Amino acid sequence: MGTKHTRADDAPDDPNDLLPERSVLSLEEYLEMQAAVGNRTRFEILYRLSHTDELTPTELDSMIDVDDSTLHYHLGKLREVGLVEKRARSERDSDGLYTYYRATILGEVILEHGVEELLRREWDFGDAYDSSAD
Question: Where is the signal peptide, in residue numbers (predicted)?
């Protein structure tokens, strides 16, 4: 059974109090973002978008093994919570493409300081996770 560790800082009793008085987003909106990126397909879409300038659905489709309707569904969910934005051209480019997606600033931050940070910490603290190392 795990033990509860106390934190050195004074954590508020109410999680809503973690936000500044004039917060841009509500706690629920932040949690919706976290939940959205918790899905494997949406994580991968956001990951790829945050590590490029922008991508078309065709380019994303070639990188991620999902059908077109599934890709668009997950792009819509990511847009809905503000992690991804869509840019539509008024004219086709040389490849005949109109629509581009990119990660928003919030998308990049929640990815970098969320799942990616946890994954990096596992590399840094591998021995701490290894119960056989005594």
Answer: none
For 126, other C-beta atoms within 10 Å of its C-beta total: 10
Task: Give tens-digit pLDDT for 16-34.
Answer: 778 888 988 888 998 899 8
The amino acid that residue 59 corresponds to is: E
Distance CA 79, CA 36 (A): 10
- DSSP for 22-75, written as a single string: T-SS-HHHHHHHHHHHTSHHHHHHHHHHHTSS-B-HHHHHHHS-S-HHHHHHHH
- pLDDT band of residue 1 (cuts 50, 70, 90) is very low
Q: Does residue 132 sit within a domain? A: no
Length of the chain: 134
Q: What is the mean pLDDT of the chain?
A: 84
**Domain CATH number, residue 95:** 1.10.10.10
Residue 18 lies in a domain: no
Task: Give the H or E element holding residue 108.
Answer: helix 105-112
Give backbone dihedrals phi and psi of 118, rounded to 5 degrees, phi first. Answer: -60, -40
